[in-house]
Design goal:
Phosphoglycerate_kinase_sf; EC 2.7.2.3; alpha/beta; Phosphoglycerate_kinase; 2 domains; Rossmann fold; 6-stranded parallel sheet; binds adenosine-5'-diphosphate; single chain; glycolysis; transferase; binds 1,3-bisphosphoglyceric acid
Length: 396
């Protein structure tokens, strides 16, 4: 793999695409800095070599012009703390200020550019815009795994201007290595745990995983589409009516391939979507009219936990319930603890997806699993077997 270990950055300016798309509260405090800390090893290696670092990123989804709430300026104090040195900031990612500040940058110094998505050219993958960005550095490094599934100017198009000077950062390399380990080098038994809101988001992944896993656990909101497809009464639980046939065919495929498919047998049900709702336990095929399933129930926890704890490779994408509300967090927490127990017993556990990472963090388990990916959509697409534009651009 073409990583930054192949070169020394002494006397060079590295232009690094990072994914600093971090959540901010209304006072611009960073509520989860995982994506920033994950990029530190790359930045520090280049600084240690004596190189200068120019960081570029997007933040949020601005509509194509500057908006203060999406300014990367808000990240400068925390990034300076993390690096133990003052980070310079340019009010624009191209133009005179960016050029002058990059030129003036000495080895060991760090410059952060303003949000790339303040230009609509970024998401359009505009070649002229990519070329302007490319002028700022001598070497291009892509460490933005979370954005690697986007064919944008800074993530993919820019690479053509560095035919002999484009590399993966350590975060990219680590993410790809771990995803590969699960997808093509899994020690058995291999269990995938899928959850979250919608089946439709994860169909392709489920289909592909049926060729790889020994067990597939399906929980969360998507489980009710399976329950209804099998003739169950699901009240007003989340359902995708147009995916009922697909759910049945996935059950059939699992059977044909000898995959142990586990669906919840019971649920924590509620009379409305709120932490103040009245709750009860119900069989998954017998949920009262007007009630909805918002977490897996106690019997399902026991069944799922057994399989998780006996696994040697685990891929977890999507929470088991509405873990953001205390009344519906038990299923996700129990599965998280089972993943940790399996990991302590030698399993490799990979957690992916923004909400799954948030759930693991909420229960304080981040340090106790093998790897929490910084990618949501990017990891899913990689696992589905798609070529990520950000990866392809470096490799070709
Ligand atoms: N039974 C359920 N009913 C409604 N929403 C659910 C249910 N179970 C989980 N969810 C919601 O699904 C969301 C996460 O789904 P998703 O985006 O697919 O996960 P990820 O970001 O980990 O890939 C969470 O906000 C969670 O509250
Ligand atoms: O947060 C991100 O992806 P994710 O929501 O899939 O985790 C990335 O920064 C990509 O952002 P985008 O989905 O606006 O292109």
């Amino acid at each position: 793999m073409k990583t930054i270990d192949l070169i020394s950055f002494t006397g060079k300016k590295a232009l690094i695409r990072v994914d600093f798309n971090v959540p901010l509260d209304k006072d611009y405090n960073i509520t989860d800095d995982n994506r920033m800390t994950a990029a530190l090893p790359t930045i520090n290696k280049i600084l240690k070599d004596g190189g200068a670092v120019i960081l570029m990123s997007h933040l949020g989804r601005p509509k194509g012009g500057p908006e203060d709430k999406y300014s990367l300026r808000h990240l400068v104090p925390h990034l300076s703390d993390l690096l133990g040195q003052q980070v310079e900031f340019a009010d624009d990612c191209i133009g005179t200020e960016a050029i002058e500040k990059s030129k003036a940058l000495e080895g060991g110094e760090v410059l952060l550019l303003e949000n790339l998505r303040f230009y609509k050219e970024e998401e359009k993958g505009d070649v002229a815009f990519a070329e302007k960005l490319s002028k700022l550095g001598d070497i291009y490094v892509n460490d933005a795994f979370g954005t690697a599934h986007r064919a944008h100017a800074s993530t993919a198009v820019i690479a053509q201007f560095f035919p002999n000077a484009k590399f993966f950062g350590y975060l990219m390399a680590g993410e790809l290595k771990n995803a590969e380990k699960v997808l093509n080098g899994a020690v058995r038994p291999f269990t995938a745990i899928m959850g979250g809101a919608k089946v439709s988001d994860k169909i392709e992944l489920i289909e592909r995983l049926l060729d790889k896993v020994d067990s597939l656990i399906i929980g969360g909101g998507m489980a009710y589409t399976f329950a209804k497809a099998q003739g169950g009464k699901i009240g007003k639980s989340l359902v995708e009516e147009d995916k009922l046939d697909l759910a049945l065919s996935l059950i059939e495929k699992a059977k044909a391939k000898g995959v142990n498919l586990l669906l919840p047998t019971d649920s924590v049900i509620a009379d409305n979507f709120s932490n103040d709702a009245n709750t009860a336990i119900a069989q998954n095929n017998d949920i009262k009219d007007g009630w909805m399933g918002l977490d897996i129930g106690p019997d399902s926890i026991v069944e799922f936990t057994k399989v998780v704890e006996g696994s040697k490779t685990l891929l977890w994408n999507g929470p088991m319930g509405v873990f953001e509300m205390e009344k519906f967090e038990a299923g996700t927490k129990a599965i998280g603890l089972a993943v940790v127990k399996a990991t302590e017993n030698g399993a490799f556990s990979l957690i992916g997806g923004g909400d799954s990472a948030a759930a693991v963090a909420k229960f304080g388990l981040t340090e106790d699993v093998s790897y929490v990916s910084t990618g949501g959509g990017a990891l899913l697409e990689y696992m589905e077997g798609k070529e990520l534009p950000g990866v392809k651009a470096i490799n070709e």
